[in-house]
Amino acid sequence: MTTIPQTPHRVTRPASLTDAFLEGLVARVPSTSGGTWKLTEVYTGEHLVDLPQSTPADIEQAYAAARAAQREWAAWPLAKRLAVFKRAHTLLVDNAHTTADLIQAESGKNRRMAIEETCDPPMVISHYLKRAPKVLAPTKRGGPVPFLSSSTEIRQPKGVVGIIAPWNFPFATGLSDAVAALIAGNGVVLKPDNKTALSPLYGISLLEQAGLPKGLFQVVCGEGPDVGPTLIDHANYVMFTGSTATGRVIGERAGRNLIGCCLELGGKNPMIVLDDVDVDEWVAGTLFGVFGNTGQICMHIERIYLPDSRYDELKAAFVAATEKLRIGAAYDFGPELGSLVSVDHMRRVQGHVEDAVAKGATVVTGGKPRPDLGPAFFEPTVLEGVTTDMVCGVTETFGPVVALHRYRTVDEAVALANDTDYGLNASVWGRDISRAEAVARRIEAGNVNVNDALATAYASKGTPSGGVKQSGVGARHGDQGLLKYTDVQNLAVLKKQVMMPRPGQDYEDHVKGMLSGLKMMRRTGIR
Ligand code: NAD
User: Fold this and answer.
1) All domains in the chain, ordered by first residue
2) Nearest atom within ligand 1 for CA of residue 165
3) Treating both helix axes as pointing N-terminal to C-terminal, what angle do 120-136 and 78-94 enclose, rounded to 10 degrees?
4) pTM (2 decimals)?
5) Which of 37, 244, 264, 408 has the fewest CB atoms below 10 angstroms from its CB?
């Protein structure tokens, strides 16, 4: 096993992160109890700011304020609402570096990934600026009586949407899902993870600079089980991103309240490499697919199936490239890998590796914490011999750990890829695109990327993206990602009452007319 080289560094916190700036950001989080949570810089473990913790009464108050602002917001013409987001797009892009400073400080990810994350809300905004006028426009359809009746599908906002976001992409999940809800005319109450509340708070301040009415977008903070129930009980719809275990809790509560929810959950994402793969392209794409965001991407790859005929060659190329990855703590673009989000999470990842090794797996490279780099660093790790009796054989690890497997036939590879409770993302690689696409269609996953690991699917904002099986319910992006935040009103108009018997008409006569009308409508296609 080779020692991964480290980037020599001295962590210098960015000048933008002054105490006054951070205290200003958290000042909008309500806390009548005065309780706080110590938010720390991941690279050093140093205290950044005290994050107020909201009580159930604070959350009720936040909903009341959002609801009052929402009534006015929903009455704005869509073009006026969209103008806010057009200005917000510019502000979000112009302030990407300050956003990245915050994302890095609170999550420990590397600069490259933090900057990529800042691009997500502008991409979602760009898509819906073009698409929302068409998707949200009333659609007139025929009614039951040709020419004399009509039915119009009107999209009404649901009211106030509760959003619960995870720590791995706090800015993207805190803002992008809210953007769609707001464009559809809703208010939002967001609960970010305590660890990563700063970047979404900053993003919201930029939306308000762009003209989003004050009060419409509320933020409450607290540990999930403490604030979750009140947050869900006052929402008209819940958008949740996080683990499958928590998703089940959220879904149950939303179901009890008879409100809709979208659950974007975990994965144990497979990659199938076909025997005609271009090795250089595959290695470059797979390094990002496995180790991007230090393996803390819901769509990242944790299982790789390599063809027997090229196993040794592909393994050697991937492991050599893994061992060259630069890992370190720095607020510049040097490191290719950053830290894990916390010491607790690092221990969990380490536990998965140790469990696998105890049950017979082999560490090909990596496998150890790197306290010399920071408190929560863990080496990029490649395992062999992982089986389904090991925790990491079946459960999402959510760290820089991947298992290599050998397959003999493509049918066997597809069966192995599908042998999981999850179904979030998958990847298939091969030079023959139609062959790779045919394999991709056989994988049970909401997203499948051909010749890429995950970014192509996630960045296609026009197509709904979500999980199947235990990886989720519903989707974000695409028309569905906007329409889910609306209720349909079926506005039906009958110009003249002809659906009842005419005065004095015999009922049998009326039925005869009705039945022949049905035949005529089918023949002519008139509805
Ligand atoms: P988590 O489920 O522990 O927490 C997610 C959010 O839910 C946090 O804000 C947390 O405070 C809150 N929460 C926890 N318990 C709660 C409860 N009982 N009621 C209400 N809220 C509660 O997940 P995590 O560890 O923060 O995030 C990592 C997970 O998120 C991984 O499983 C990853 O795959 C998943 N994820 C999925 C997607 C996707 O789009 N499918 C995207 C990002 C992350």
Assistant:
1) 16-134+155-265+479-486 (3.40.605.10), 269-466 (3.40.309.10)
2) 9
3) 170
4) 0.96
5) 408
